[in-house]
Give the backbone structure.
Amino acid sequence: MRLEVFFLFLAVGVVAQAVDGALGMAYGVISSSVLLAFGVPPAMASASVHAAEVFTTAASATSHVAHKNVDWRLFRPLVVAGIIGGVLGAYVLAGIDGDVIKPFVVAYLALVGIWILWRAGHDVQPRRLPSWMTGPMGIVGGFLDAIGGGGWGPTVSSAMVGSGVEPRRAIGTVNTAEFLLTVAISATFVWSLVTGHWEEAGALQNHGAAVAGLVVGGLIAAPFAGWIVKRVPRRALTYAVGGLLIVLAAFQGLQISGLL
C-alpha cells in the first residue's frame, strides 16, 4: 500500500511541479488538495507539502537563476516579508483551523485571474514595479501559504503579474523566493512540534510515503522550470497565469461548497 501511495504522489508531484515551475503557482494547491482528499488534517497537509517543497523549490530556484529569470531588486524585500508572514502563518495554523480564510482567497484568485486575462487580451505592456510593493505581497502570500499549504504562488505571482511585472520575471522571482520561505515555514512547523504547540503532529510519520513521492516527482520536473518560462512568449504566459488562477478558484470553490 505504501508503495502505491508513493507512486501516486510521485505522479502528483511531477504534474504539480511542472505547472508550478512554468506558471509560478499550483504545486502547493494541487498537492495539499490531494492530501486533504486522503483525509490528512490541514496542518499535516501543509507541513507535508512544505517538507517536500524544501527540495523541489531548491531545484526550481536553481533553474530560474540559471536562466536569469529573477529580478533581484524585487527579490530581497519579497523574501524578508514572505518569511515574516510564513512563520506567523505556520505558528497560527498549528493551533487553529485555517479553512475560515479560504473563501476570501478563492474570491481574490477569481478577481485577479479575470484582471490578468483582461491585461493579456489588451496586450498591456509590463511596467517597473517599485520594490517596496513586494513587501505587503510577501507578508500576505507567506501567511496564506502556511495557512493553506499553497497560497504563495497564486497570491504573489498573480499580484506581481497583475501589477504589470513581466510574467517571466514575476514567476522566476516568486519561485526563487519560495525556497527560503519554505525552509522558514518548515522550521516553524518543527519548532511547533518540539515545543508541544502542535499536538496532532504525531501522526505525520504516517504520511512519509506521500511526502517522498511528492519530493521525487517534484525533483523530476523542477529543473525544466526556468527553461520553460524563458521560452514561452510573454502574452501566452500572461493568458496561462490568468486562466490557471480562475481554474484554481473554481476548484477550491467547489471544495468549499462540498461538491468535490
Observations:
- The chain has eleven helices and no strands.
- The radius of gyration is 17 Å.
- The CA atoms of residues 10 and 213 lie 4 Å apart.
